[in-house]
Amino acid sequence: MKNGNRAKEQLTGDSKLLNRRTTHSEASESGYTGEETIPSSDILYLASTALRFVELTPEEDIYQFIGEQLQKLTDSSIIVISSFDEAFNNFCVRSFVGNTGDRDTFIEFLGRSPVGVAASISDKARIALTKGKLVKVPGGLYEFAFGEIPEAICHEIERRLALGDIYSMGFSCKGNLFGTAAIITHRGTKLASPSALEALISQSAVALQRWQAERALQQANDQLEIKIAKRTEELTKANKKLKAEVAERKQTEKKLKQTTGKLLESVETTIQAMVRIVEKRDPYTAGHQRRVTQLACAIARRMNYSEDQVNALHLAGIIHDVGKIQVPAEILANPDGLSEAEFSIVKTHPLAGYEILNTIEFPWPIAKIIYQHHERMNGSGYPLGLSGEDILLEARILAVADVVEAMSSHRPYRPALGIDKALEEIIQGKGILYDADVVDNCVNLLSEGSFKFEQKAKSAVS
Fold first, then answer.
1. Residue ranges of domains in the chain
2. DSSP letter, residue 323
3. How far apart are CA 108 and CA 203, in angstroms?
């Protein structure tokens, strides 16, 4: 049902593009004039393409797919789809769609396939590409390639293939450019339906942005697995039993789901893998993160948080101690209590967790919440020494839930102190260490008996 709903949202958004008319002022930049309405056949084609984007699997090449869909609207034109790397300010060709003669001619003169060719872009060109409409490229193929292909070769390719005008439009969102689509026509041909092409490129931008986000998330997870594997290898030298635990983790850990429209579920999968990693290295606090999440989400709902805000707190809670993967296991399981030096090492886990998660693009400030969950209202917390309203409210809720669960549960260096002792602690620290509203809601929740810790946490992501 989720994919179906998101497909409908996609089509609803696309319908706005399908119903737009190209004004005369827009036309002057695009190289076509007059007022043009998208033919009904093109509208049906765009609608079916929107559905196809939803069904696109991770194994399919989205750049090639976009190029093929655009060519169907342009007859025999050549379609060049490129990605944009903001760090290096350049484009890289990802797909070249044309007939066999077109491809062979480019390969003959370039000595290679056009796919993979990179070129820097000027600020002026970059701004023009983010306007959401087709722009006619002046200067032909040489200007289109930003001078990366020698001018004489460009002229010879134009002569051999009888190339005409070149049009380009960026894949962009809120002024941020992350790719481009170019249409290279042949002499004597015109763009049949410029508005339909603009609609399809805008439609493709949405799909491409989602695809790139999912890919970045997968890459972040892969990098995390590499770090974990390296750390595990070091620990294995001291404890051979870890080999069995790592093997078990690899068997049970599910890969991120990259299907279109399920980005939040993919995030959940990554988070749960991190939870298992932390808990396997620290058996005395197994389930701690889950129980903290249960209480934190219950407090948030009592404070009339929206479900979206509860989702954010849920994700932050179930992984708030992920930074402990960088703390030696023998410190985490020390039955004699921690020395000052050992505690200093443990206090680095909020920063470590922030650095791990800051590379993942969440819809909420998950990394910051985790970074701040040991801050205190009077500035006596760590690692930043923030105080009052400078601390995110989600982090303030997580701090109270963390203290209550920790005190009421068994630890390597002491038995469980119980809920009553935990409530006494947060009441004494109310308004000093802990947010007053959060403490009141937590105390009422537990005193009324309307909350009990469960053995397993239920997912808050819907």
1. 2-209, 262-447
2. G
3. 34
> Is domain 2-209 in CATH 3.30.450.40, yes or no?
yes
Q: How far is CA 27 from CA 21, 35, 314, in A?
A: 10, 8, 49
Structure token digits, residue 140:
């032909």
Cis status, amide bond into 383, omega within 30 of 0 = yes
What span, in angstroms and rounded, lies between the C-alpha atoms of 121 and 84? 9
Sort 445 into a burial class: Cβ within 10 Å, 0-12 / 13-18 / 19+. middle
Four-way CATH pick for 262-447: 3.60.110.10, 1.10.3210.10, 3.30.70.360, 3.30.470.20: 1.10.3210.10
Report the DSSP beta bridge partners of residue 171.
179
Q: What pTM was estimated for this model as a whole?
A: 0.44
Among positive and negative, which fits the CA dihedral 433, 437, 440, 441?
negative
Would you write out the chain's pLDDT as a tens digit for each of its 462 residues? 444 454 444 444 444 444 443 333 333 344 444 445 777 887 888 888 888 887 777 667 889 999 999 988 887 789 999 998 888 888 899 999 998 889 999 999 999 999 998 888 888 888 888 888 898 988 889 888 888 889 999 999 999 999 999 999 998 887 788 899 999 999 888 887 888 888 889 888 888 888 777 777 877 888 888 888 888 777 777 676 656 666 666 666 554 444 433 556 666 677 777 767 766 766 665 578 888 999 999 999 999 999 888 988 998 998 888 888 888 877 777 777 778 888 888 889 899 889 988 888 788 899 999 999 999 999 999 999 999 999 999 999 999 999 998 888 767 667 778 888 888 999 999 999 999 999 999 999 988 887 887 754 443 333
